[in-house]
Design goal:
By secondary structure, the chain is an alpha+beta fold. Helices cover 47% and strands 19% of the residues. Strands 1-2-6-3-5-4 form a 6-stranded mixed beta sheet. It has a 5-stranded mixed beta sheet with strand order 7-11-8-10-9, sandwiched between helices. The termini are far apart. The N terminus is likely disordered.
């Protein structure tokens, strides 16, 4: 597909997403003959199909001592399949105009992309090859291993990455969530081709497959395609059970690095996505530090004192854990004052709460921004369809979301502030040594 066509289609995808956003999204739940479940938004405005897939089992499934196995496997999924080596596979994808990427988190292995309707049969064949017959050639393994190792080395020089590593290890300790998704220099070198094949067989199954599709494809066509692509995968999941974990808090961790700025993270307990109080916590956080330019932290840290370019806070939610973090990056000489101001604002919201006016502004923003942030392209909508399933939100979540937000009371939001911030936090500081 030539460059002009790519640019043209990119513009059309934006128009397509806007058209879907402007109209009620008609979500259809389908089940294939082989039991694969998917959500579909059928739309023929443009000849484009967006697909998003997810399998349960992320980097938390990596064997101990071989952290980064799933990350390496993921990097190899488009490095050859069936009778196509890496160069041939990627040339064929380019010829078909396929844009498909695989990703991982601690809890999931996922993939997604978009394609032209006219090329769907050939594209689905290529995706089927990648899913069912990845080659995992030794030369490709070494190239991807080198690339990941290079990223690991680079991350060791990045204050934010160093802070994230220290934070994970401090609050999750010996739990799988404490490990890096990319592994370490030692662990990435310990991974063999047999480990990668075993991980592939472990993760990919129909039992944990979730699919979201948006665009120019019918229910019948999609059912046939999904059974053809995924129907030969095992119907039983082989992933290991991951234990629930509460973050261990209360530590003060300082790591010296010869860099211009200091990275600061302040961590408290939180709630998971399936908690009924999630939106109360979300709205409270919007007022504190999630609202960017309108938040209390932004006002106090940047606007009034000029201590940092940016500051934010938010909930980190996993399948088996959660935490709340506030953070910033600031010059070394501003470090102590920035930490003091952030902690003062957190204490103030815990003891005094937010106001009714702040809550109403947060509700308007959080309700109104959802479509712009999540429903403006077909690819994003496909991702939402997967999230509706993996997070058990329900097929009618988009319609009900505004009511969930509207139902949050001032007491609900302030109760979340008291609950989160009644514990001594873990504070992680990474940057240059400050001499007094």
């Amino acid at each position: 597909m030539d460059k002009f066509m790519r640019v043209f289609l990119t513009a059309l995808v934006f128009v397509f997403g806007t058209a879907l956003q402007a109209n009620a999204i008609d979500i259809k739940s389908i089940t294939t003959d082989k039991g694969i479940k998917a959500l579909l938004v059928e739309d023929y405005t443009l000849p484009i199909i967006a697909i998003s897939v997810s399998f349960k089992g992320g980097s938390a499934q990596d064997p101990e001592g071989k952290e980064g196995t799933l990350r390496l496997m993921t990097a190899l999924m488009d490095e050859g399949a069936g009778d196509l080596d890496s160069a041939a596979f990627q040339a064929r994808a380019e010829e078909l105009g396929l844009e498909f990427r695989f990703n991982i988190s601690q809890d999931n292995f996922s993939g997604g992309g978009r394609l032209l309707r006219s090329e769907r049969e050939e594209v689905f064949k290529l995706i089927k090859l990648a899913v069912n017959e990845p080659r995992f050639d030794e030369d490709a393994i070494e190239r991807m291993r080198d690339a990941i190792r290079s990223g690991i080395v680079s991350s060791q020089k990045n204050p934010s990455s160093v802070a994230s590593k220290a934070l994970r290890e401090a609050i999750f300790q010996d739990h799988p969530y404490s490990r890096s998704t990319s592994g370490t220099e030692i662990s990435i070198d310990a991974i063999t081709r047999e480990d990668i094949i075993a991980m592939n067989r472990k993760i990919l199954s129909r039992a944990t497959l979730t699919v979201g599709v948006v665009g120019a494809i019918s229910e019948t066509e999609l059912k046939i395609a999904l059974d053809d692509i995924f129907g030969n995968l095992p119907n039983e999941s082989a992933i290991a059970k991951i234990a629930e974990v509460e973050p261990v808090l209360g530590d003060d961790i300082t790591i010296a690095m010869p860099v211009p700025n200091t990275s600061v993270s302040i961590v408290y307990p939180a709630i998971k996505r399936d908690n009924p109080d999630f939106f109360a916590a979300h709205l409270m956080n919007h007022v504190l530090g999630g609202g960017t330019f309108s938040s209390r932290l932004y006002t106090q840290v940047r606007e009034k004192r000029g201590l940092a370019y940016g500051v934010s806070s938010g909930l980190a939610t996993f399948d088996h854990a959660s935490y709340f973090a506030a953070g910033t990056s600031t010059r070394a000489e501003n470090r102590d004052e920035a930490i003091k101001v952030i902690r003062e604002e957190i204490k103030r919201i815990a003891t005094q709460g937010i106001t009714a006016e702040e809550l109403e502004k947060a509700k308007r923003y959080v309700a109104g921004s959802y479509a712009i942030s999540n429903l403006d392209t077909s690819g994003k909508i496909a991702n939402v369809l997967v999230a509706l399933q993996t997070q058990n939100l329900g097929i009618d979540y988009i319609e009900k979301r505004e009511k969930y937000i509207a139902d949050v009371t001032l007491e609900d939001a302030n109760r979340m502030a008291r609950q989160f911030f009644s514990t001594k936090p873990t504070v992680v500081v990474v940057g240059p040594v400050v001499t007094q």
